[in-house]
Amino acid sequence: METTHLSDNIDETEELKVTFYPELFLQRRIWILNFLRKENVTRVLDVGCGEGQLLTPLCQPAPWLTPPPPSILPPPETPSSPDDLVPSTPTYNDDEIPNLHLTEVHGLDISSEDLAFAMEACAPPKHVPDEGNSSPGFRSYTAGVQRWEELICKVWKGGLEVINEEFVDMECIVAMEVIEHLPDGIFQAFAPVLLGVYHPEFLLVTTPSYTFNERFLPPNAPRIARSGYLDPTRRTDRIFRHSDHKFEWTRDEFKAWCEETAKEWGYVVRQTSIGLPLQKDPFGRDEQLEGATQVAEFRRLESMDNKTREGKGRVRVKELGITGQPHEALAVYKHTANAVAMKPKPFEDVAERVILKMEEFREAFMRMEELWFEADIATLCGGWIEVLVRAIEECPKLQLKRDVDGIRKGRSTWSVELIGGVANPAQYWPAGGETNADCIPADWSPVEDPEEIWEESDFGSSAGVDGDISANSSEDDGIYDSENDHVGWRGKSGWKGAVSKSPKSPKSPKKANHGWSVSADWGAVEANWGDVQHSAMSSTAGWDGDESDDDTTS
User: Where are the transmembrane segments (predicted)?
Assistant: First the structure.
C-alpha cells in the first residue's frame, strides 16, 4: 500500500500557500502590547510610527484604575467565604492580563502623509459618552470607555539619527519593522542613538526573517518561482519581501547582531520569532524555519552607568557625521481624566445604584463588567472597580458570584445577583395575540424576508480584529492568495530614501479610528470598535504592513 505525503503532487514552479491567524501584523502588535503589559510600562516611544497603528491602542484608556491604596479601600475584616484568603491589597484582576496604564506616548516618523493619520488617531475623542441619557433601559456601556488617568501624546516628525533630548531616559522604545528599511548610514546610528543616548529600560525590535522565506517555495523550486524584490543594495542575490528593504536577516544574522549590540551597550537580549503559518509545511521544515517575524527584547543592565551609555552614544553619533533637521512636534495631545477619578462615593451609594440599574433592566443576574460599564456606576466608584466589588459584597441585597458550578473563575465571568429579583425583560410586544401598532418599538426595522438577515458569509468566516472580514489571510504579511496567485508583503514609507514609484490610481480616503480598543488593555487579540481606518481595512499598517504604492503582491 502506497503512503501519501503532503509534498506529493506539488508544483515546484509555484509558491506554497502560507496564511497566518491572527494576521502577521496583528501578531507583531500583540507581542509588543503583551510585553508592555507584563512590564507595567508607562512611557513609550514608537520609532517609525507610520500611520499610528500602534499609537492607536496605546492611546486608549484603561477601563479602570490600578487597585486603590489601603487608605481608600482597606482589606475586608472577614473573608467573602470560608475558602477565601484576605488579600493585603484588594485587587480585581491580579490573576489575569493587567491593563496598560500609560502616562506618556510618543510617535516619530519622517513621512508627513503617514503622520497626518497618526495625529488623527492619537487625538482625544471629539465625543464623550452621554451620561445624561435617562431613557428607561438605556445601557451606557455601548457608548465607550471613560478615561480615569491623564495621558500626554506627542507626534514628532524627524529622523531617528537626530537626537531628541526629550527621549533621553525613555522607559521603552519600540522599533516595529523599521531596521530593514534603514539606509546603511542611518542604520549605523540606530544603536548609538536608541541604546546609547536614550538608554531606555527596554527596546523592542521586530524585523522579517529571511530564513522563513524558504517556506514559500518547495526545496527544489527554481529561483524564478519566488516573487519579490532583488536586494536593492546588490550586496546579496536575495529576494526580499518589499522593494524598500535594505536587508533581510537570516535567523543567525539577527541573533549575532542582537548579541553584539546588547554587549556593546550594556543590555541583555532575548531573541525569538513569532508568526507560525496555519498550514503544516509539506516538506517538514516548520521547526527549522521558525516564525516569519524575528523579535528581540533588549533589557538594560545595571553593570553600565546610564551616563556612560549616553556619553558614548553622543560621541559615536558625532563621529558618524550625520546631520539632519531637528525633530518637529506636529501635535501635542492631552487626554484628560474624568474629574471624579479617585473620588469614590460611599459603598451604600454605589450598591443602591447597582440595585436601581438591575431593577430598571429587569435583570436578576448581571455580569460584573456589564455593570461597570454603566457610566454612572463607574463614576460613583471613582474609576476603581474594586470599590464596586466591595460595595456589592457588603450589600445584603446583592451577592457576588465568583464561581461557576463551585469552580472559581476569572473576573470576566463574575456575576452579580439581585437577591429576590426576578428576571423579567421588558414586554415590547402585547400579550394574547394583540397587534396594536403602538407597541412596536420605535427603533424596530421590518425585514421582508427574515432569511435575508443571515447570509452564508456570516458563518465560518473570520472577522478581522481591525474591522475587516478575512478568511484567515492578509494581503500584506507574506500571506499567499491562491486565487490571485501572489504573496503580499508591505513595508513602510518612512525612514527610507527616495523610491521611484510607477503611476497608480489614487488611494481611497482614510479614516482614523476613534472607537475604543479592547486590545490595548483587555487581552491578547485586538478589536477596534467605531470607524475603521482605511489602512486597517486593507490589513496595512505603516511599517507593520504599509500601504505603499511601490508595493507588490509578491
Answer: none
